[in-house]
Amino acid sequence: MNFTLSIRMRIYLSILVCVIVVGMLGLIIFEHLPPLDAFYFLIVTIATVGYGDIYPVTPAGKILVMVIILTGVGCFIGVAANSIESMIEDRERKNRLEKLNMIIGIFFSEVGTKILKKFSIHDPSIQNIRSALLVTNNWTDAEFAHAKGVLEKHVCTLDSRSIPLEELHGFLGHHKGFLLSLLENPQLIEHDSFTPLLQALFHLTEELMAREKFTGLPDTDYAHLSGDINRVYRLLMIEWLTYMQYLKQNYPYLFSLAMRQNPFDINASVIVKGG
After folding, report:
1. Residues of each domain in the chain carrying CATH 1.10.287.70
2. Domain 3-90, what architecture?
3. Is the distance from CB of 49 to CB of 63 less than 8 angstroms?
4. In terms of Cα–Cα distance, which of 153, 139, 136 is closest to 238?
5. What's the CA gap between 158 and 123, in Å, rounded?
6. pLDDT tens for each residue of 112-142
7. pTM score, two decimals?
8. Do 30 and 62 touch, CB atoms closer than 8 A?
9. Tens digits of residue pLDDT in 20-76
């Protein structure tokens, strides 16, 4: 539910609750109705059913009922309309997120998993997190949450001088058009974590493409590239884990393949082995 719709719903509900409370008190005082009858009368009036079995007989009661009809019925219709709109919006958002997750799957298939493997090989502290990222078919949400906690505490210390920048430059340059097409997708703005990852990765690509060579650079430039690489590495690890959890919950067959391609598992093999 978007912010505007949520505010509208709260206003309608607040007014409707006030109408019911004040209306019940008024009917009990002016019409001398029992609380249950007063509540029953309010509901059939606001819902525009009006069986006619209970009706106001005093002038004050009639005025009160007119006010209830003018305010309560409108608020009731507003609540119903907003509820339907919210349901439709939630369904549309779910469909959009489903399409986004398909895009994220293509990203990891084409680029993400390969980059993670390249970076993890050169991570000097990979042993501190490797065991926590060996995702299995038996993982629960609690285990994914634990692994995410491990990643959030992990300090990325990749050194650009230890990474084959020429090879990375060629790989990202080859996929620059693919990354640009993802960034141009207007639906990605709805994904709070994947969009910053794409932006960081595209920035790293631009940085590498802007350099003619990767040897003999000043230490300050290597430090700058290290910062860009570590930013991508951190965002990429967290997004990969989130995507793995999504696959585990929704697409077991895709999860099976992704699990066998785990970039943090040195024994990972796409070949399905028995035993």
Report:
1. 3-90
2. Orthogonal Bundle (1.10)
3. no
4. 153
5. 6
6. 999 999 999 999 999 999 999 999 999 999 9
7. 0.71
8. no
9. 899 999 999 999 999 999 999 888 888 888 777 888 889 998 898 888 888 888 888
